[in-house]
Amino acid sequence: MEAERCLIASRSDEPPWLTRVRQWVESNGHRRVTLSQAAERANMSPSYFSTMFKKTTGTAFLEYVARIRVEKAKTLLRDPFARVSEVAFVAGFGSIPRFNSAFRKLAGMSPTEYRASIRG
């Protein structure tokens, strides 16, 4: 999990366009975030932005967005009264199946299993 946090953490030596995009994603990750919108913030074409983002960060842009959202969901799941479905939508996932799939892929367990593991 620490490695994932390092992937999404900003670095002091990153290009300014990447800093702008990271800040924008962190502020708007709960909304619909598209590659085209991010490319616009970086003043690049979507294709060039996608290539540069992957080259600079080592991860695809949409995977980065999913990581941001899963980290947000992990924080929200600490509240034992928050329903998993509510967490999914507050974190920015458009559907429960998409949330469950992304969470399992990135966290290695389901949201319910994650919640149980932090309690116990």
Distance between the termini: 17 Å
- Please state roughly what percent of the residues sit in beta strands, choosing from under 5%, 5-15%, 15-25%, 25-35%, 35-45% or over 45%: under 5%
Structural class: mainly alpha
Fraction of residues in helix: 55-70%
Largest sheet, in brief, is:
none
The number of E-state strands comes to: 0
Provide the fold topology:
Blueprint: H1 2-8, H2 16-28, H3 35-41, H4 46-57, H5 61-76, H6 84-90, H7 96-107, H8 111-119
Helix pairs in contact: 1-5, 3-4
Key words describing this protein structure:
120 residues, mainly alpha, Arc Repressor Mutant, subunit A, 2 domains, 8 helices, 69% helix, 0% strand, elongated, disordered N terminus
Quick summary of this structure?
Helices cover 69% and strands 0% of the residues. The chain is an all-alpha fold and 120 residues long. The protein has two domains: 61 residues, Arc Repressor Mutant, subunit A, CATH 1.10.10; 53 residues, Arc Repressor Mutant, subunit A (Orthogonal Bundle).
Write a structural description.
The chain is mainly α. Helices cover about 70% and strands about 0% of the residues. The radius of gyration is 15 Å and the shape is elongated. Mean pLDDT is about 90; it is low at about 1-5.
